[in-house]
């Protein structure tokens, strides 16, 4: 509509969106000839998809492997939090052994009788 000569105000009424949204679409189009979305904010990824798969694969192979061992094997300068995040993305969580078996009241009574 803007290319056809319509005003921004008319485009806003026709499309039912904010004036700011119309300007944000029109300005890149007139400057660059394209309406490509900007890349997201935040830091760039430090690992490739293959390295992500390798992190998960190592955790699946050996449940006792540590994050520092995984980091050394992958060979990329990443922090432990990155490894934890990759593992949590595939629903792998740390497994801690029970300190003691959970006992029902019936089990407790039987153990007391046995003693």
UniProtKB/TrEMBL annotation:
- From which domain of life does this come? Eukaryota
Q: Which GO terms describe its biological process?
A: DNA integration; DNA transposition
- Give the InterPro entries listed for this entry: Transposase_Tc1-like (IPR002492)
**Domain called Transposase Tc1-like: residue spans:** 52-115
Q: Which GO molecular-function terms appear in the entry?
A: DNA binding
Name the UniProt record assigns to this protein? HTH_Tnp_Tc3_2 domain-containing protein
